[in-house]
Amino acid sequence: MRVPMTISDFLDRAELGFAASPGVIDEPSQPAAPVPASTYGRLGERVRAWQAGLDALGVGEGERVAVVSHNSARLLELLFAVPMSGRICVPVNFRLKAEEIEYVVRQSGASVVLVDPEVRDAVADIKAEHRFVLGEQTESELMRFGVEPRPWSSPDEDATATINYTSGTTARPKGVQLTHRNIWVNGLTFGLHTRAWERDVYLHTLPMFHCNGWGMPFVMAGLGVKQVVLRKVDGAEILRRVDEHGVTMMCGAPAVWNAVLDAAAGWEGEVPGRDRVRIVCAGAPPPSRMIQRVEEELGWEFTQIYGLTETSPVLTFNRTRPEDEGLPAQERARKLSRAGLPALGVKLRVAGSGEVLARSNVVLDGYWEKPQETAAVLEGGWFHTGDGGSIDEADGHLTISDRKKDVIITGGENVSSIEVEDTIFSHPAVAEVAVIGVPDAKWGETIKALVVLAEAAEVSETEIIAYCKQRIAGYKAPTSVEFRDAIPRTATGKVQKFKLREPYWEGRGRGVN
Amino acid sequence: MRVPMTISDFLDRAELGFAASPGVIDEPSQPAAPVPASTYGRLGERVRAWQAGLDALGVGEGERVAVVSHNSARLLELLFAVPMSGRICVPVNFRLKAEEIEYVVRQSGASVVLVDPEVRDAVADIKAEHRFVLGEQTESELMRFGVEPRPWSSPDEDATATINYTSGTTARPKGVQLTHRNIWVNGLTFGLHTRAWERDVYLHTLPMFHCNGWGMPFVMAGLGVKQVVLRKVDGAEILRRVDEHGVTMMCGAPAVWNAVLDAAAGWEGEVPGRDRVRIVCAGAPPPSRMIQRVEEELGWEFTQIYGLTETSPVLTFNRTRPEDEGLPAQERARKLSRAGLPALGVKLRVAGSGEVLARSNVVLDGYWEKPQETAAVLEGGWFHTGDGGSIDEADGHLTISDRKKDVIITGGENVSSIEVEDTIFSHPAVAEVAVIGVPDAKWGETIKALVVLAEAAEVSETEIIAYCKQRIAGYKAPTSVEFRDAIPRTATGKVQKFKLREPYWEGRGRGVN
C-alpha cells in the first residue's frame, strides 16, 4: 500500500498520542498576545481554525500564504495549517528590508500575507489580496474556531509544501520548493539520527523561517515533544529557558552557541542542562575551539550537521563516534567540526571540480518559477551544493573546504556577496568592489568590502556601510570597508575571491570563508 | 528530487560510514563453517559476491530466491543481496515440514533454493532450477568474490523486495509481498521509535525469516550497529551473548523473554545488561507479570509493539510514558502490555465490527498471486488486521482484545488453526474438530484440539498428536486433545470459537487467545 507521506502525519500523531501533553509554549514577551500554553490537542484545534479561516477567505489549494514573523506559536501553527490543506507556506525572513520582502511576496505570488506586529510598519505598503497582522487581528478576523476546514482534495507527497527564499549566487533570492515528501524524509532522518523522543524538550533557538526551522516543528510534534518558542536569540535568555523548561535539545548556527558561551561565563551557579542538553549546529563550520568549550564549559553534547535550504536541510550528521571517545578533547573537537556522515538515504559525491553533489529525497523539487536555475542546480540528476569538499575514505565523513558559491554565512544568515556588491556598486563613488567573508569570533564570518574608488571620488567607510543599511537588511551590510587601488583578476577578468580571502584566513587550517 | 527508497540505502550507509566497524558476527556453533566475523566493508563485499553469483547463474530481475535457514550471517547477507539486485528474496521458516516448504517454493516460483545444512535432508526432494546448501557449497560454487555484479537496471521503491509466507485464515500460507518502500519506512520508523544508534549492539534473538527479522538487519546496518547472530533461542545462551558482546537491543516474542527469565533465575552473579539492554516484544500480548519481571529481575527496558507480517511489521509502539513513570510497577506493566501508539505515518481505526484497520506505507503490496485475497484484505483502502481491538481516547493507544482470524501464536510462531483442523480432520476416526489456543506459561499460547469422534471410532490423544507431527511442523501440532460429544455451533453452522476458548482464559482480563 502506498499512502502519501505528508506533513499531516506529524500533527496526526501528536493529536492522537499527545492530545493532553504540553505542545507549544509561546514566547511570553512579544508585541502580540502570546498564544496560551497549549497541548497538542489544542494545537490541532488552532491549526484547523487557521484552515477554516483560509477557506472562508477563498484561498484555494496551491495558493501561497506568506508569513513574515519572528519565531512564534502562530508561525509554527501556520507551518502545519497551510501545507496540510494543500496550500503552500512561504515563511519570510523578518530581517529583510521592505523592498526585499515585497520581492518575495510578489515572486511567490502570495495571495495572503501575515506579518508580525513588529514588522507591521516596515511592510505597510506590501500588496497582497489579504493582509493580516499576527495576533489579535488574526484571532478575531481570520481564524474560525470549531469550523471543520475543507480537507485537502487529493493529498500528494510530491506537492509543494513550503517555499523558502534563499540567497544564492545571484542578487535576488530564489524560492526553494520543498515537497511534503522532502519534509517527511528530512523529519524522519533528523529525528532518527538525533535520537529525538517523547521525553525531549525542544527550544526553538533557530528561526523557523530558516528552512522551516530545519523541519523541527514537524518531527518534534510527531514525537510528542514539548516545543518552547524563543523569539530572539539571547545567550542568557536561552540559559534561563533551558533551566525553566528542562530543555534537552536545540539547533542553531555557531553564533547562537557563542552567545550562550558568553552568557555562561557570567552565569551564577551551575550552568543548566549539563549532561542533558544536546545541540545541533550548522551554518558556517564551527571553530573546533567552540565545540570544545560547549562540551567543557556547558557539558552539552555537540552534533554538527551540514545542509542547505535546498536539502530540507539535512545532508550529513557528525556526532562523536564511539572509537573517538578516548581522543584528547581538542582532537575530538576537530573531528566534530567536519560536516559528517550522510544521513540514511543521502548519497554524496565530489565532482572533478571539487564541488559536493547530493542525491536524496531531501533535495528540493525546484526553484519557484525558475526553470533554468532549477535545471542548472540539478544537472545530471545530482544537486550541486556549490560547496567544495572532500570525503574521508576511512569513515565516509564529508569535510567542507570551500564555499564555491559567493555566499557568506554570518550569524547563521546566508548573504549573497553578489547582492552586497551590487548595492555598493550602485554608489556613484565606487568603481569596483569585491565582497568577502572574513573570520569573526562572534558571527563566524563577517562581511568585508574591498572597494576601488572612482577617479577623484571620495567616500568614507562609514558612508558606504550606512548606504548599504538603507538599501538591504542590516545583517547584509559590510562591517568593514577597505579601499584598494585595484582588485586582482584572472586573465579572463574573473575576480579570484579565494586570493582576496587568503590573508584574513591564514593559519585557520581550513579554507572555508 | 525523488530518488527510490530502496534497501540499498541501508547497506550503502553501512559501507560508507562503518566500513571498518564490526558488522555481522555469525553464530559460532553451526553445521556450516561460520562466516568469519566481518566489518560492514566485508559485508558489502560478500553481498556483491552473492549477486555476482546469481548473475552467473542467469537469475534475472524479479526472479525469486528462496532461503530456508536458521539465523545465520548468510541469510542476513541474502536479505540484502537478493532485493538490492532487483530480485525477490523468499525467507522460509525452517521449521516447516518438507511438503510445506515445497508448497512455498512452488507457489513463489522460486528458481533458486538455498538451504541450511540442518534441513538439507528434509528438503532433499524439493525441486527448483538451482539448489545449494548454505556454507561451503555456496562459498565455492555460487559466490563470486571480486566480480562486480550487474546493477539493478531500474531501482524502484514499489518493486517487491521480499515475500514472507504467513499463516492466515486459510490452511495454505500466503506470500506477503513487501516492497522496498514498505521496508524502508518500517526501518526508519522502527529505528526512530526505538532510538537505535551506532552505539547499539543488536542480538538476533528473532528468526530472520519472520518478516525479515522485523526489518532489523536493514536498519541496524544503516546505523552501523554491530549485529550478533543467534541461531537458536536458548535463555542462558542469550545471557552469555549479552555479556560477551555488550548487547543493548533485542527483539522477540514473549516466549523468548520467558526463556531468558528462566535462565536468569539460575544465573550466577549479576544478570548482564542491567540498565543497558532494551527489548522489543511482539507476538502474543505478553502477560503483564512477565513485563514486570523483565524490568525487576533483569533491569531491561521493555517496549511492546504490535504488527503483522503484512505490515512490515510495525504498526504500534508502547514504551512507558513519562507521565506513567511514577505508577506502581504492576500498573505500569499493565499499561505496557497494550499494543501501543501508532508509529509515525500509521493510521489506525476500529471498524464497526471491532476489527482493527490500518493505513500506512508499511502495509503490504499484496499476497503473491492471490488477487482475490489481496482485494479482500485491502478492501476500502484499509488493511484488515483480522484482530479486534480498541483505541484509548485519552492517549491514542491501541489494545488488541480479540484475534479475529483463526491464528494461534505459540512461541512467536503463527499457526493457522484451520490448517491444524484440516490435518486432524483427515484422520479417519475424527468426525469434527475445533482447534483453539489456550494459555501457556512458557509459550504464551499453546494449541488444543477439541475432537468429536466418528461413530464407533477410537483414537487416543497421543495418536492424534503423533499423526499431526508426521504431517505438519511440530510446533503446529496440538499439545493436548480433548474429546467432546459435540462442538457448539451457531444457527448458520459456524463454530463459535470464542465460546470454546472462554473457560480456558477466564480471569485473565483479556480476550486474546
Automatic annotation (TrEMBL), chains A, B:
Q: Where is the AMP-binding enzyme C-terminal domain?
A: 419-494
Keyword vocabulary terms for this entry? Fatty acid metabolism, Ligase, Lipid metabolism
- Note one Pfam family from the annotation: AMP-binding
Where is the AMP-dependent synthetase/ligase domain positioned along the sequence? 39-368
Q: Return the similarity comment.
A: Belongs to the ATP-dependent AMP-binding enzyme family.
Protein name per Swiss-Prot or TrEMBL: AMP-binding protein
What is the species listed in this Swiss-Prot or TrEMBL entry? Streptomyces bluensis
